[in-house]
From TrEMBL:
The lineage of its organism: Eukaryota, Metazoa, Chordata, Craniata, Vertebrata. One of its GO terms (biological process) is transcription by RNA polymerase II. GO terms for molecular function: DNA binding. Belongs to the TBP family. Keywords: DNA-binding, Transcription. It comes from Poecilia formosa (Amazon molly). This is TBP-like 1. InterPro entries: TBP (IPR000814), TBP_dom_sf (IPR012295).
């Protein structure tokens, strides 16, 4: 299962970092490890007109070009945020439950279904 492998690799990496800090003389104790955030990135083969995308997906999507170059799309049931860039790049962040990693991994069918819902009316695709 993808999720378990990633958690095990993250735990191993955190243990290695703790060991390095110990060797530098810091008092480090490794305990209560847990995954609190997940990041997934993918690129779509097309550009997105963010103003039209936001208009078609309000109030879930917001776009403030003066503050950030991406439109923000919130998926409340997964507690995730998708940053949609005009280049077609997507960044999914904010997962609190590690069981949702498989659902939002860029190669999963969930991501494709979500993208189909996001880009349902495609006039904003450039």
């Amino acid at each position: 299962k993808y999720c378990n492998i990633c958690e095990e690799e993250a735990k191993l990496g955190a243990r290695r970092l703790a060991r390095c800090l110990q060797k530098l003389g810091f008092k480090v104790r490794f305990s209560a490890f847990r995954v609190v955030n997940v990041l997934a990135v993918c690129s779509m083969p097309f550009a997105v007109h963010l103003v039209d995308f936001t208009k078609n997906n309000r109030p879930i999507a917001s776009y403030e070009p003066e503050l950030h170059p991406a439109a923000t799309y919130r998926i409340k049931n997964l507690k995730a945020t998708v940053q949609v860039f005009s280049t077609g790049s997507l960044t999914v962040t904010g997962m609190l439950l590690s069981q949702n990693v498989n659902k939002t991994h860029p190669s999963s069918s969930f991501m494709l279904i979500s993208l189909a819902a996001l880009f349902d009316s495609l006039p904003f695709v450039q």
